[in-house]
# Entry
Amino acid sequence: MDKRGNLLDVRQLRVIFHTYRGLIKALNGVDLWMDKQERLGIVGETGCGKSVTAQAMMRLIEEPGKITEGEVWFENRDLLKLSEDEMTKIRGREISMIFQEPKSSLNPVFKSGFQIKETLLNAKKATPANAEEEVEKILGYVGMDASRVKNMYPHELSGGMAQRVMIAMALATQPKLLIADEPTSALDVTIQAQILELLSDLTQKMGNAVMMITHDMGIVAEFCDRVVVMYAGNAVEVAPTKELFQNPIHPYTQGLLRAVPRVGRPGELKAIPGTVPDLVDPPEGCRFHPRCDYAFDQCKNVLPPLLEISAHHYVSCYLCQKDGCPSAKKAGEEPW
Amino acid sequence: MVEPLMTITNLKKHFALKKNVFSKNVIVKAVDDVNLEIPRESIFAVVGESGSGKTTLGRTLMKLIPPTAGMVSMDGKDILTLDKKAFLPYRRKMQIVFQDPYNSLHPRKLVKTVIGEGLKIHFKGISEMEIRDKIREVLLQVGLREEHMFRYPHEFSGGQRQRIAFARAIVLEPEFIVLDEPTSALDVSVQAMVLKMLQEARAQNALTYLFITHNLSIVDYFANHLAVMYLGRVVETGSKAEIFDHPAHPYTRLLMNSNPIPDPFLKREKQVVRGEIPSPIHPPSGCHFHPRCPFAKAECKEQEPQYREISSGHFIRCHFPV
Ligand SMILES: Nc1ncnc2c1ncn2[C@@H]1O[C@H](COP(=O)(O)OP(=O)(O)OP(=O)(O)O)[C@@H](O)[C@H]1O
Ligand SMILES: Nc1ncnc2c1ncn2[C@@H]1O[C@H](COP(=O)(O)OP(=O)(O)OP(=O)(O)O)[C@@H](O)[C@H]1O
Ligand code: SF4
Ligand SMILES: [Mg+2]
Ligand SMILES: [Mg+2]
# Structure
């Protein structure tokens, strides 16, 4: 089998949740892949499956959820086939995660220095003899006054400081992949800018790949090499960042970009008509078809496959197969 | 210049916090000596990071909480000193819409009750028929349908609830509405719809908005005046065009620079503001921004900068404007 990325290749990932309302078909065959040291953005609106994708890759889906299908190739192993012991070794060592609410991922009863130390010892990245020294070094890397911060409890940290501690812990084990799930959405913009700069510098120096989950197109534009756009449980468009902004093809991606306000470009904002579907009873075929201006019969029956329509640009839309993407730029018009 | 709708003069709102039974009260100067003129039929944005006092400013000038000092005049009257009876017409003229579309509407009241209850207070003797007509009219105006009045708020999506909250405000035919982060809980495509609806309603009803937000991109798209707050003080204000073209306060510039722009082709030097946002309980001396300011000199630490006009209608609080 050909791997599409030399670090990660997720194929046809499906996840469901059993709820009192019925079965939520949260992931409907997600495809995505990454190369080593790459920065991949995952964007899409609330509920489209960004976090569930990350959790499923890490095998952190719990009852009432279930992974029903798919492969998660991480280098040469399918993570979905590993034993729980083997998977535990991957989590936190080869793949680390940081989240939106850093404080809730820290243990409130231990000082931050102690928590970093435990992480290092567990991952065998330090010995009891040099652990203290390593902790200080790592806190220094994330721009903090180590002697003060290591003795602080999580509730004493500001949101930005807590996120730095999380980053310190996540990168301490030198993971090959860092998954950042909305790491700055709860922070103020000046602090967000600090955290993004820090993440950018450290991961570049250490050579970690980063999967950046966000709903902010600004962060995508400034941070990511490549982007996956998700809609209602599918990757609908995958492209290098510049290509995606310059030449968005999927009608949903186009709609999303037109809805984003941007400094220096006043004018109409256009909303996407309709609302996101209920995943208990999602539309057949392309899940976007009820909201799509271009939908035709074929869209309503079978999910369009994610196909490469030009170099490194993948789209899941029948228009591209029909007559060469008429949904793309109209002549003379700005793409979005 | 035309007479402003609202003039805010030396407005202060300080909160006394008791840390514990043994310690003295500490004071948080949530709104500290704010001076603004809000032009009639403008969209006046208030931006600033969390804790800068935006919500407190909105609530104080609505008289929802008592001010510590200062004046807010509307139609030439100081509304903060009016007694309850004299204030009643202003209670109708001034409305507020909150950020959280999930908590701001009573879950067990039908939409028609949510929207209609204010009408009975403010329009004495109004008939059920008239109430029904008004509710229908505002529902259509905010992009909902007549039959929605017989549903409960929880049956609606976030964007729809925000429309209901707005319908409840405009049904009273106000002149002034405080919009406290009305779209920050919404997805971008829903946000685009709500912003558009707000713009249309403003034009149709000759409304003035005080629009509180974190998001400078929305300000550029939506507002025509702007005040930037930092730790309780307005550090810069003026027309949106003037401030976006010539930001003079170092904080405003850094705030603009921190705002991620959705354009991968844009090349700009990112300048990151160093340091944490200081605690509002013990704000830095002099200019509150001095510990984080790249241009700070000794004077900034020692002396509080005066609020002054640097060009027509453009005010700033800084010793060394850029
Ligand atoms: N524990 C759970 N139980 C039931 N449904 C769930 C659970 N976790 C996720 N889901 C559902 O799966 C879908 C995808 O959720 P997910 O959290 O991945 O969205 P997201 O893209 O991360 O959204 P957001 O931007 O709001 O974080 C949603 O419809 C959600 O309701
Ligand atoms: N009722 C209160 N009692 C004591 N302190 C308060 C009260 N309300 C607000 N404060 C304090 O006043 C300051 C300003 O708060 P405010 O909510 O106005 O900020 P904001 O700019 O609206 O922030 P955000 O962007 O987070 O909504 C904060 O330090 C806050 O803790
Ligand atoms: S596949 Fe069809 S419905 Fe889906 S986005 Fe493309 S044109 Fe629209
Ligand atoms: Mg999520
Ligand atoms: Mg607020």
Q: What stands out?
A: Chain A has two domains: 1-94+179-269+303-336, 102-174. Residues 252 and 288 of chain A are 7 Å apart (CA to CA).
